[in-house]
Amino acid sequence: MRPGAPILRFAPSPNGRLHLGHAYSALLNADLARRMGGLCRLRIEDIDPVRSRPDLVAAIVTDLAWLGLTYPEPLRHQSRHLDSYRVTLQGLIARGLAYPCFCSRGQIRARAAASAGNPHDPDGAPLYPGTCRGLDPGITAERLARGEPHTWRIDMAAALRCADGSLDYEAFDGAETRRVAADPARWGDAVIARRDVPTSYHLAVVHDDAEEGITHVVRGRDLEAATDLHVLLQRLLGLPTPRYHHHGLILDPDGEKLAKSRGSQSLADLRAAGVTPEQIRARLGFA
């Protein structure tokens, strides 16, 4: 690969078997990397200690190899980099840009429902009302010392003040590019570290994209709104912002997005039924 060549990545989570939607994204990333004279990495986003399983990691590698896709070694497994995420998180905390939240999901739903207009974030979850943002520092320290379960949330107002400038990114579609204004405020005080691990999807993906030198992020349209929050985190952490492309989703006969949780037919099911990789590629437009 020539110096300065584009670097893309396909980054599945090992909490279920890959389906046609994953296949489309993986094939698109590989195809774009080839056409741009770059490479595509495989990242295993396995920060969920409950749902991520080694057998599902192996299944991902098997399914992608069956499709004819190979990736540079070593693969990045997020579960092996928790200490790095912890350092990144502590940096945000030290700057007053993140605070602990002791609220349960039920408490958040109840308080958000009582708020004017019952606001929600782009994922449809109740917008956090900021209950723990103004807690007395002494009380917060005591609760942390007692080991009370908590998440860490970004202080959105403080983060926007710190970013102090234009929050936008470059979107690309083929040879066409355009500037997109990010609006991270619509996420409110989003969770950036979970109760069980010192990171979240948002924090880990921003950290890893910079660590792996990713220049182009190609992922589903369902993650387009998350890019607003990612651009903000990149600014706060002094990290480069890749170019982004958010592709259309593969839908089931009911017009719903394919999903592991909905029991969508997996690539392994299709393989067992005699479907070939060539048929998958043709079906998804990569013949």
UniProtKB/TrEMBL annotation:
Entry-linked PROSITE patterns: AA_TRNA_LIGASE_I
InterPro entries: aa-tRNA-synth_I_CS (IPR001412), Glu/Gln-tRNA-synth (IPR000924), Glu/Gln-tRNA-synth_Ib_cat-dom (IPR020058), GluQ/Sye (IPR049940), Rossmann-like_a/b/a_fold (IPR014729)
Molecular functions (GO terms): ligase activity
Enzyme's top EC category: ligase
Domain Glutamyl/glutaminyl-tRNA synthetase class Ib catalytic, chain residue ranges per copy: 9-281
Family stated for the protein in its record: Belongs to the class-I aminoacyl-tRNA synthetase family.
PANTHER family membership: GLUTAMATE--TRNA LIGASE, GLUTAMYL-Q TRNA(ASP) SYNTHETASE
Protein's UniProt name: tRNA glutamyl-Q(34) synthetase GluQRS
